[in-house]
Amino acid sequence: MKTSRRTKHLPRVIRTVPALRRAVANFRARGGKIALVPTMGALHEGHFSLIGRARNRADRVIVSIFVNPAQFAPNEDLNTYPRSFDADIAALAELKVELVWAPAVPTMYPAGFATRIVPEGPATAGLEDAIRPHFFAGVATVVAKLLIQCEPDIAVFGEKDYQQLKVVTQLARDLDLKCRILGVPIVREPDGLALSSRNRYLSPSERQAAPMLYRALKECAGKIASGAPLDAVLDYGRKAIARAGLRLDYFEARNANTLKSLTAPSGEPIRLLAAAQIGTTRLIDNVAV
């Protein structure tokens, strides 16, 4: 008697807007909430935690995979950004994701596309926007399109890109989008390094030094919570990161809700945010105080 091997159910991959709208309408007809997890692919455990949170909060989960050219400057790594579509689909099958929205660039930005969203507020905090002035217009535009296309009740974003999370939250609120933005805590390696698709760029020696960014953030957060003077703590953290061989872009303490500079540190929620480069890799991270 022959035994049959069960075929793993792969998620449905959709590449056109009309097909996506039909799929979403079918989800709606069947009832329940829809969650969207926007990604640029090269999936890792951090993404999987977002999908897990989405599944806990909704009945249907859509994962988008789209490397958004609008958020890359000409000197950045658009052409070399990690892409592993087949492996991503296999991983999403293991997680029982039903639908993957994977449009091509011309689908998202067809000939004659002439509209973009230029956010302010948390997008002009002098953090990522100071280093990558193009970035948040690209993010806001593509996220708005994804939210309109997929019509989710919930969209899930990681806290590693903390300023991005605040920008997207503001965007959904300001445009009256019927979607709740949910932030999920950072997933880290055992030594503290925040998971990122770009970590695969790190050489062995760079990988050994990279966790210093998190260690400095964590130590400085403890000092601030204990009442140490803010300016002295930030200076300490910046020097510690430089000694580890990282080229610092910023190391700042900001209001955790607005990302504005602190005016009364003892009475405000504080988030420490940092970005640094090591070799060809740019690391970003943050911790709550």
Provide a brief overview of the structure.
37% of the residues lie in helices and 19% in strands. The chain has helices at 17-30, 45-57, 85-94, 105-108, 128-131, 135-150, 162-174, 204-209, 212-225, 230-243, and strands spanning 12-14, 34-39, 60-65, 99-101, 154-158, 180-184, 247-255, 270-278, 281-288.
Cα shape: globular
Q: What is the CATH superfamily of the largest domain?
A: HUPs
Order of strands across the widest beta sheet? 1-4-3-2-5-6
CATH topology call of the largest domain: Rossmann fold
Provide a count of the helices.
Answer: 10
Are there runs of 5+ residues with pLDDT below 50, and where?
Answer: 1-7
How many domains would you count in the coordinates? 2
Question: Class of the largest domain, according to the CATH hierarchy?
Answer: Alpha Beta
Structural summary, described in words:
- With 289 residues, this protein is α/β, with parallel strands linked by helices.
- Helices cover 37% and strands 19% of the residues.
- It is built from 10 helices and 9 strands.
- It has helices at residues 17-30, 45-57, 85-94, 105-108, 128-131, 135-150, 162-174, 204-209, 212-225, 230-243; strands at 12-14, 34-39, 60-65, 99-101, 154-158, 180-184, 247-255, 270-278, 281-288.
- It has a 6-stranded parallel sheet, sandwiched between helices.
- Strand 5, helix 7 and strand 6 form a beta-alpha-beta unit.
- The protein is globular and about 55 Å long.
- It starts with 11 loop residues before the first strand and ends with a strand.
